[in-house]
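Figure S7 source data.
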Amino acid sequence: DGFDLLVINGLVVTASDTANYDIAIKDGKIALLAPPGVLGTSSAKRVIDAEGGYVMPGGIDCHVHLEEPALFGGKGRSSDNFETGTRSSICGGTTTIVAFAPQAKTIPSLLQVLEDTQARAKDNCYTDYSFHMLVGHPGEQALSEFPRLRELGISSLKIYMTYAALQLRDDQILDVLLASRKEGITTMIHAENGDVLTWMTKKLEERKLYAPKYHATSRPQIVETEATNRAIALAELMDAPILVVHVSSPSAAAHLRNAQTRGLPVYAETCPQYLFLTQADLDKPGFEGAKCVCSPPPRESAHDHDAIWIGLANGTFTVLSSDHCPFMYEDYEKGKKSIISEEYPEGRFSGIPNGCPGIETRLALTLSANRLPLQKFVEVTSTNAARLYGLYPQKGTILPGVSDADLTIWYPPGKLGTFKLTNSMLHHNVDYTPFEGMELNQWPRYTILRGEVVWDRDGGGLLGKKGYGKFVARGKSTLPGPRQAGEWDVSVF
Ligand code: DUC
Ligand code: ZN
Ligand code: ZN
Ligand code: ZN
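Tokens for the predicted zinc ion complex:
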């Protein structure tokens, strides 16, 4: 009897509906939704008045790098660990993350990698969390462990078509797709042609073109488009579901759209970097452009952004993730110079680790831009991530009696006015944001995780506790999988 928490006077927005409801929470779950005023507030332990602000399922960020070794060029390792990364997440309205459990080429066992990563996350997280296996060495042992990974609640993995430490050959990609298909695992693919961009980099360096802006020159759109098309072809051959991560290029998006139109289980992700940054951001004074070096790189112009926004609106992109990949800009080693800044090594773009922080800014930046219908915003930042990665409907919606009480409550529209984003507002362990100075008009006012208020912007800020976040065992994707039932059979070709 009695509820733990009532959220009243909110405009409740899910991927499927928008309406005025009061939400009752009990024992960490959504208990019920009722028309405004019907529940009466007397029996609740606490009442939050949303004052007409949007109330949404908590954000889900299914592309986050925390506590990883140096894998992405240069010497930088992740500057956020599970504590600081998930702290930042909760302050930006994201209640569940899926981070990577990275397998270096030298480690044969994925189960070992998972166990080690679990140990780093355990008792350290502010958000609920899970892991994608990052498969760098799909040898016999790793492939044989897929059934056990599924039993342990891991239903996705990521592979790379670039980076010396991670790049797989096409035959290795087929091995992974075949084994994943069999176990109901979704394969995420980083689609850039590693051989081509390495060759391009060599040509640029021969001409002493080292500045950060040449990072973009070294990997033009066709490098992404070719690899995306190849990834689609390999997935079609295997009849296996894939998700192409961090798509930046309109032409890559067009290939993905075409595959989807043909009915292939081909999904795609994009990120705020590809909606808000351009190549010009790599060409800032000094070495500052290094702060916007990610792969794929920000593209040429607002026309590219427009195409990505359209892809979000029309369903080409299933999810909008942060690809939070945090490195310190002023990362001084003992007695040495900064490892990212211009002194090291001789200020070459090829020495800059690839990746941008953004776990805390993803939702506010995107909502403030006001370019997606609200329900679509919820779909790509929460609901679809839950569906694609086997968290739905425990996460990603607010189904009474079923869903965890994870909510992001926004300010009433207009209440905050406009303000500029600065890194000093953020809670990550990174000394910059690539989005410094961008104008915002929204920020999460409250973040609620399993019924606990973990962020109250006007009432103490971060209230969550490290270790409150729990590992979530995931099931299979609930989005369409292989088109043919049964095992893949080479003899049908
Ligand atoms: N790919 C990622 O997914 N994150 C950062 C670097 C990269 O290339
Ligand atoms: Zn081996
Ligand atoms: Zn990647
Ligand atoms: Zn990433």
